[in-house]
UniProtKB/TrEMBL annotation:
EC primary class: oxidoreductase
Coiled coil: none
Protein name: methylmalonate-semialdehyde dehydrogenase (CoA acylating)
GO biological process: L-valine catabolic process; thymine catabolic process
UniProt EC number: 1.2.1.27
Keywords for the protein's UniProt record, in alphabetical order: NAD, Oxidoreductase
InterPro entries in UniProt: Ald_DH/histidinol_DH, Ald_DH_C, Ald_DH_CS_CYS, Ald_DH_N, Aldehyde_DH_dom, MeMal-semiAld_DH
Designated gene of the protein: iolA
Molecular function via GO: methylmalonate-semialdehyde dehydrogenase (acylating, NAD) activity
Aldehyde dehydrogenase domain location: 14-480
Provenance organism: Xenorhabdus szentirmaii DSM 16338
Superkingdom of source: Bacteria
């Protein structure tokens, strides 16, 4: 069986590790590749390779770095179909969703192509008599990206385009569940002209991550994954003196107001709840329906929509399915446990996705769209991230109660409101405790030139990914204040012993 390699110093390298993990095609429930869980020496080799490449790359002009990224962008476009099929094969998401993921990643590359402008720093003339000040935004050194299974192309591309554009070198540790994309991205970067050693991929699991988090040559860590691991990564990297941004899990709420455009809202909710089988950190997994009347209408329409959904393989000849399988057998079992707990705790199960069978794919990891009504905030299916195609409806009497629920939840990644009332919408934008907010937009993922990140336990660290925060994360500011003595002859008795004020 094919073994997915490491990519270190510009070379594809077979791992010597005796620890491996199977990579499955979740639509057929079969292992299709193996990935080695790299040894400590292999992980250190990747760090060393990035460390050695840093000096020269950091001094390469931003324009030259941008030109490589321009070529990388073109190569991504040329290879889009092949890459989308590979994403769908290992992750399970439908082909057009994989194309969408690649497009969102590509947009960060496009943003990073503007680095000569973004990394200019600041300058002030005459901050004192004959004194000027300017700032440099310098790269940090070796940066690390640790990424989740659900966006094997997009999430790495939230990180490395800006890290490389700003003059850093990079080690990517992708998810061991769908690692092939990482190698394809590395090969395309090399084809685009990126010198060897600047971008490296090391396959592995926690053991690999622990080396990356503690090695003194690593300067910064970007992590995206579940909240317990994000918290661990942030604490460990910070304790070892590294800059860290760690994005975690979510439970994204939407408030459905009685005046909402129901056609628009229902279409949006169905797509955002069940797209990618709910395996998105911005999936909409809770609807707070304000008033029984709107809740009853919502439930009726959702049931109709769900009844028309097609679930199956992510790649089909002819008409595409709406939703593919979930990532693994274990994850499927976990989602089914959540559904069982919802029933046990008294929620009303209106559509049950357990036992879903897809003809010709009997061993695939399918869970059908699942809908619960009369969910209450004490239930496990409300409190925890399920990360599957399960939508829960909580009935609330008024907007105030709905807002309080959103704000009291542990997570604060995204939140949305469906309403025609501008005053309520504006107030929601002001008051909601969430990092990304949608007004009649179900998945408010910011564009590449804005920054992506949640609040509360959906993120650890002060800076979000991409946009201006991304540039700040991968650079360190240095401010130089200078006076050239030719015009000012300093005499010995000109020494000053008070705090300089430039007055
Ligand atoms: P995960 O936390 O299991 O794994 C993420 C990465 O961490 C992987 O590379 C994995 O190998 C590594 N890892 C796993 N356990 C580890 C440990 N104990 N110590 C060190 N490293 C470890 O997450 P996942 O299941 O791959 O992805 C799904 C999760 O990611 C969901 O919770 C989802 O909400 C979250 N996510 C968040 C965002 C966001 O922007 N906030 C985006 C995408 C996914």
């Amino acid at each position: 069986m094919e073994q997915i390699k490491n990519f270190i110093g510009g070379q594809l390298i077979d791992s010597k590790s005796n620890r491996t993990s199977s990579v499955f095609n979740p639509a057929i429930g079969q292992a299709i590749r193996q990935v080695a869980l790299s040894t400590a020496d292999e992980t250190k080799h990747a760090i060393e390779s990035a460390h050695l490449a840093f000096n020269e790359w950091s001094k390469t002009s931003p324009l030259k770095r941008a030109r490589i990224l321009f070529r990388f962008k073109s190569l991504l476009e040329e290879n889009r179909d092949r890459l989308a099929r590979l994403i769908s094969e290992e992750h399970g998401k439908i082909y057009s969703d994989a194309i969408g993921e690649l497009t969102r990643g590509l947009e960060v590359v496009e943003f990073a192509c503007g680095i000569p402008h973004l990394q200019k720093g600041e300058h002030s003339a005459n901050v004192g008599s004959g004194v000027d000040s300017h700032s440099l935004m310098q790269p940090l050194g070796v940066c690390v990206g640790i990424t989740p299974f659900n966006f094997p192309a997009m999430v790495p591309m939230w990180m490395f385009p800006l890290a490389l554009a700003t003059g850093n070198t990079f080690v990517l540790k992708p998810s061991e569940k769908d690692p092939s994309l990482s190698i394809e991205l590395a090969k395309l970067l090399q084809q685009a002209g990126l010198p060897d050693g600047i971008f490296n991929v090391v396959q592995g699991d926690k053991e690999t991550v622990d080396i990356l988090l503690t090695d003194p040559r690593v300067q910064a860590v970007s992590f995206v994954g579940s909240t317990p691991v994000a918290e661990y990564v942030y604490a460990t990297a910070s304790a070892h003196g590294k800059r860290c941004q760690a994005l975690g899990g979510a439970k994204n709420h939407s408030i459905l107001m009685p005046d909402a455009d129901m056609d628009m809202a229902v279409n949006a909710i169905v797509g955002a709840a069940f797209g990618a089988a709910g395996e998105r950190c911005m999936a909409l997994s809770v609807v707070l329906a304000v008033g029984d009347e709107i809740a009853d209408q919502l439930v009726e329409r959702l049931q109709q929509h769900i009844g028309q959904m097609s679930v199956g393989s992510g790649i089909t000849e002819g008409k595409e399915n709406d939703m593919g399988p979930v990532i693994s057998e274990q994850h499927k079992a976990k989602i089914c446990d959540y559904i069982r707990s919802g029933v046990d705790q008294g929620a009303r199960l209106l559509v049950d996705g357990r036992g879903y069978q897809v003809a010709g794919h009997e061993r695939g990891y399918f869970v059908g769209p699942t809908l619960f009504d009369y969910v209450t905030p004490d239930m496990k299916i409300y409190k925890e991230e399920i990360f599957g195609p399960v939508l829960v409806i909580v009935r609330v009497p008024d907007y105030g109660t709905a807002l309080q629920l959103v704000n009291h939840h542990e997570y604060g990644n995204g939140a949305a409101i469906f309403t025609r009332d501008g005053e309520v919408a504006r107030q929601f934008g002001e008051d909601v405790q969430s990092g990304m907010v949608g007004i009649n937009i179900p998945i408010p993922v910011p564009m590449a030139f804005h920054s992506f990140g949640g609040w509360k336990r959906s993120i650890f660290g002060p800076l979000n990914v991409h946009g201006n925060d991304g540039v700040r994360f991968y650079t360190r500011m240095k401010t130089i204040t200078s006076r050239w003595p030719a015009s000012v002859r300093l005499e010995h008795h000109d020494s000053h012993f008070v705090m300089p004020t430039m007055e």
